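Colleagues,

For the teaching module next term, I've prepared a clean inverse folding example: a structure given as tokens, and then the sequence designed for it. I'd like students to try predicting residues themselves before seeing the answer, so please don't circulate the second half yet.
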């Protein structure tokens, strides 16, 4: 018995030593880019550890290198609230944008000079990594910036993420010039507190190419691009998928306040703790060095191991960050300086026509697949026939396409000199490609549309629009579910949503008892709706969210809108003849009036829009907003202007009364200066609306 106890004790000691040794080699390989032993030797150590843990399972701990992939697949992801917002970044596209950014910061800081820290802007998925007593306990996606999803199991599979934080030596910390207070804070959080870093989850070019080669041999679908592959892997419920994808993680900030002086120190400290940071990061003493670094990286981007679309430039002095603050959802002290849009040439093989919710047919170019901007592109937007005619485009043409970041690719130029005489002219369709019904050009419009009121595609888009975020915002009722309900014959019109029961849904694929009940409850929860949302949800041609607010504000009730005369509708500011006629005709269509009656019969209650005559201090005045406001969102600002009787047109004209310029104003600002329109800042605007 004593011999067995000795054996057990020796096994425990051996397991701890193996874990420590494997973690050391992980740190050397992933953080310092060094390799002191071969992969085969490291695998041998891991195999020995796994064998001992199988023999002595009582010594298995969650931070063991063998436990990166484990656990049952999840049923669903749960939400995780971030300790501080994971903000989005403002974009700059040229040196002038960067100089303007620095000037704005200098005005706020009364002439302060800035130094910067530059990091490559990786094309991946942002994640927050949280440690308790130095052990990895939670990983979450960015989500909406405030709340993400708990994807800890999947993040554990990434070798670049340490399961246990490395403990830096005092000598290493001294070399970072950390203050005594910072060192004490660090030791405290490592020993007994919470510690959080943020990083970008990516798939590097080599892994992407190897996986696609493997998948092609196996006859499996190929990965579209590294970013989607990384994001899709992290959102798989079974962590084995993420493990197979060999993802990487690069840290870009420490979210825990340690009292550090510089952002550069954060990155160097993160490396000492066992995290990976890009070796291409660079300290720049001024903006000229930043611009030079950006140019250098743009020229070398094809040689980099991972895809990136710009340089993230950060004010290096951390004490300035809270003083500079944030604007909307983005920090003032960070700017994403994007690389120029990428272009490539390919051929147009066909034109397909998509059907929208109002029946509009939109052309999309089908391309010979081409790699551009970090993704394989096979389609590009064309908008309408006017765009096709402007480009002089034909099927079979060689074209230049452009892609910038996540922006939908577009055709920018036709190369007619490469035509072979076999190219085909693009004709406006006479029949709807979905239902086969008549398609026609409507007088006074660029668009061609399907005029069949029973078109399946139009109905699907219309029903999807009703449930969308800007309209009724019905949780769980997305396009795929709606299409499924239509195919099952459960839904054919908007009113059918309100007839659904859990019993109707439970037999269907994707539905269990709970999910069926949840959807029915979500629909019931939106039986009471504000008038502007209701109008927008109806999908009246030309009526967007703002126009719906204008209608509600002008007439106050659905009944009065129904009774409105054409000339009354035309008098609504920024409506115009076409929109007024569209609204007028919609409310005189027998089918539409029947729908409204049926919705009322189904128990839908519309909260009428109260028209107030108080405080109409902005009556007749027009405000155009440009840039980002810090104290309220653009939608909130527009709503406030409208409540006070003002108008919010989308473009600047000589008749515009005010242009409100926030941070990073766009072309509207330049046009206002040219036309002599009065420009006010956010502070002046707030005084007007109070």
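(Answer key — instructors only)
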């Amino acid at each position: 018995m004593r011999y067995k106890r000795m054996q057990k004790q020796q096994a425990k000691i051996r397991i701890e030593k193996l874990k420590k040794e494997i973690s050391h080699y992980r740190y050397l390989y992933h953080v310092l880019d060094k390799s002191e032993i071969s992969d085969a030797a490291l695998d041998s150590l891991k195999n020995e550890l796994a064998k001992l843990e199988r023999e002595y399972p009582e010594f298995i701990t969650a931070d063991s290198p063998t436990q990166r992939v484990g656990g049952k697949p999840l049923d669903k992801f749960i939400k995780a609230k971030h300790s501080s917002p994971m903000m989005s970044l403002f974009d700059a596209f040229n040196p002038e944008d960067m100089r303007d950014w620095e000037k704005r910061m200098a005005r706020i800081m009364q002439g302060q000079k800035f130094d910067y820290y530059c990091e490559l802007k990786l094309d991946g998925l942002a994640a927050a990594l949280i440690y308790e007593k130095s052990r990895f306990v939670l990983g979450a996606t960015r989500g909406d910036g405030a709340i993400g999803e708990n994807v800890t199991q999947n993040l554990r599979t990434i070798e670049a993420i340490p399961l246990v934080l490395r403990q830096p030596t005092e000598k290493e910390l001294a070399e970072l010039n950390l203050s005594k207070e910072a060192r004490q804070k660090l030791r405290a959080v490592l020993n007994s507190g919470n510690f959080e870093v943020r990083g970008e989850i990516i798939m590097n070019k080599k892994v992407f190419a190897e996986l696609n080669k493997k998948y092609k041999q196996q006859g499996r679908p190929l990965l579209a691009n590294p970013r989607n592959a990384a994001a899709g892997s992290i959102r798989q419920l079974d962590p084995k998928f993420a493990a197979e994808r060999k993802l990487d993680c690069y840290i870009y900030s420490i979210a825990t306040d340690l009292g550090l002086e510089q952002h550069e120190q954060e990155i160097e400290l993160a490396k000492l703790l066992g995290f990976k940071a890009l070796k291409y990061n660079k300290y720049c003493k001024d903006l000229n060095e930043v611009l030079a670094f950006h140019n250098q990286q743009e020229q070398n981007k094809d040689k980099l191991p991972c895809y990136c679309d710009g340089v993230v430039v950060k004010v290096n002095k951390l004490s300035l960050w809270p003083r500079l603050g944030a604007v909307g959802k983005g920090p003032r002290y960070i700017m994403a300086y994007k690389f120029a849009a990428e272009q490539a040439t390919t051929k147009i093989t066909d034109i397909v026509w998509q059907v929208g919710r109002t029946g509009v047919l939109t052309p999309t170019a089908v391309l010979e697949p081409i790699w551009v901007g970090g993704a394989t592109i096979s389609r590009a937007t064309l908008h309408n026939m006017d765009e096709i005619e402007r480009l002089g485009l034909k099927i079979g043409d060689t074209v230049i396409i452009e892609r910038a970041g996540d922006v939908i690719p577009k055709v920018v130029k036709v190369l007619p000199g490469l035509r072979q005489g076999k190219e085909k002219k693009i004709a406006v369709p006479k029949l709807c490609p979905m239902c086969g019904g008549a398609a026609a050009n409507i007088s006074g419009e660029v668009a061609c549309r399907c005029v069949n009121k029973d078109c399946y595609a139009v109905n699907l888009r219309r029903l999807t629009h009703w449930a969308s975020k800007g309209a009724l915002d019905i949780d769980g009722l997305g396009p795929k579910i709606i299409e499924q309900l239509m195919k099952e014959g459960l839904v054919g019109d908007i009113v059918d949503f309100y007839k659904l029961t859990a019993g109707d849904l439970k037999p269907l694929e994707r539905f269990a008892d709970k999910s069926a009940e949840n959807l029915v409850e979500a629909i019931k929860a939106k039986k009471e709706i504000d008038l502007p949302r209701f109008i927008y949800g109806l999908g009246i041609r030309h009526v967007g969210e703002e126009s719906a607010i204008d209608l509600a504000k002008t007439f106050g009730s659905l009944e009065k809108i129904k009774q409105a005369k054409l000339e009354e509708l035309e008098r609504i500011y920024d409506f115009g003849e076409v929109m007024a006629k569209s609204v007028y005709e919609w409310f005189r269509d027998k089918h539409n009036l029947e729908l409204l009656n049926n919705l009322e019969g189904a128990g839908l209650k519309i909260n009428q829009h109260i028209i107030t005559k108080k405080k109409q201090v902005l009556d007749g005045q027009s405000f155009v907003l440009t840039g980002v406001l810090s104290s309220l969102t653009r939608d909130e600002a527009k709503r406030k202007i409208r409540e006070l009787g003002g108008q919010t047109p989308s473009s600047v004209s000589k008749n515009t009364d005010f242009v409100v310029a926030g941070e990073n104003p766009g072309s509207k600002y330049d046009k206002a200066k040219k036309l002599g329109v009065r420009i006010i800042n956010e502070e002046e605007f707030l005084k007007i609306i109070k």
